Amino acid sequence: MRRTARNPxxxxxxxxxSVVFVGPIAAMLLTSLKPxxxxxxxxxxxxxxxxxxxxxxxxxxxxxxxxxxxxxxSMLAATAHALLVVLTASLAGYALAxxxxxxxxxxxxxxxxxMFVPGFIFLMPNFLTLDRLGWLDTLAAIVVPGAAGAxxxxxxxxxxxxxxxxxxxxxRIDGAGPFTTFFRIMLPNATPALVTLLVLSFLANWNDFxxxxxVLFNDARLTLPIGLSKLQGAYTIDYPVIxxxxxxxxxxxxxxxxxxxxxxxxxxxxxxxxG
Length: 275
Hints:
The protein has helices at residues 2-5, 8-32, 36-39, 54-61, 67-98, 104-113, 123-133, 140-143, 150-162, 166-173, 178-189, 191-207, 210-215, 224-229, 239-270. By secondary structure, it is mainly α. The protein has one domain (2-270): MetI-like (MetI-like fold, Orthogonal Bundle), CATH 1.10.3720.10.
């Protein structure tokens, strides 16, 4: 381990990878602070010659583009969607991992098979279902669909399989029922997997573009990715404003990962060790 840590090639490789991942974020931030003419130059400099917050002022004070409203819509939808995914996936994953019932393996196989179906196939059926329910042009239209996805069920099932059976046996000896065992014993021990699934579901909903474009019509109900696409004009592009919008859209994702990265690493390392 010490020899690996002192290997200069390893540090060079890590530095290059850091530049690859951090470079676009830094360029995005610096462009948002540039004057419009400098950002639109054919040969722009990396650093702004003059730092200006005009792009953020335009973005946050425009009556035609309610960015803060779009931001809150995305935040509410992504949070509600992620919590719903964690609830459904943990219940289904626990049942498939720990409970014995007829047809369990067939049911699990059918759930996994849906992962191989292209998502675009479900656009029209889901749209018609939401139309019947009267949920079109509401936040429910981007919260509920996909909340019972196969990936979450598979992920949680694999994690529950990795937990020792002694947890449940001890709970049964103490007289705990299935729901008490699940909510008070198994879920607290599945925190890394739950947080990992929460983050992945949040990111998927936060970055989704196609589905909200189909089901949201009112400008006041748009999510941030759809709203930011309206900032690009047909003939002129205000790059600082667009980059400022990208910075605002990136902040929750970066902050979320900073606070939960330890759980994400533990969850990915632990899930999938049993099948």
